[in-house]
Amino acid sequence: MSSNDQNEQRVRELGSAFMPKYDSAGLLSAVVQDAATGDVLMVAFMDAEALEATRSTREAHFHSRSRGTLWKKGETSGNVLKVEEMLVDCDQDALVLKVRPAGPACHTGARSCFYRRIDGDGLAKIDT
Question: Which residues contact residue 53 at a Cβ distance below 8 angstroms, ignoring those fewer than 6 apart?
Fold first, then answer.
């Protein structure tokens, strides 16, 4: 690693500048957490456009990998995610969005996308 790369890494990991580190596809992982309960509601991906839209509107936007476009959570269902706080991990390649959900977070209608647990070789539904 060059000294410039080491310096950038040090600034990214220890400094106060927000320097998102997108992956090779231009994405960050985003874990969405209920601000009131701490429950994990969903995991999605954000590109620079989604991150900017989320920061400016305080409503969660993501990058739809299947459609290859910007996606505002709740755009058609009304189940928007109001962002209260955004946390970034140590190397700035993942985010936690603490949100107030306006309805179910999962496209299946479940409160959380994490509504099943691994049970032996299968899955068992849990209350969320």
Answer: 61, 70, 72
Q: Which among 108, 47, 17 is positioned nearest to 8, based on CA atoms?
A: 17
User: What single-letter DSSP state applies at residue 105?
Assistant: S
3-state secondary structure of 35: coil
Give the pLDDT confidence of 65-95 residue by residue, as tens digits.
999 999 999 999 999 999 999 999 999 999 9
Q: Is residue 128 classed as helix, strand or coil in its secondary structure? A: coil
User: pTM above the 0.85 mark?
Assistant: yes
Contacts for 112-121 with beta carbons within 8 Å, 24 or more apart?
112/39, 112/40, 112/41, 112/42, 113/41, 113/42, 113/43, 114/40, 114/41, 114/42
- Structure tokens that stand for 31 in this block: 């874990």
Q: How many residues does the chain have?
A: 128
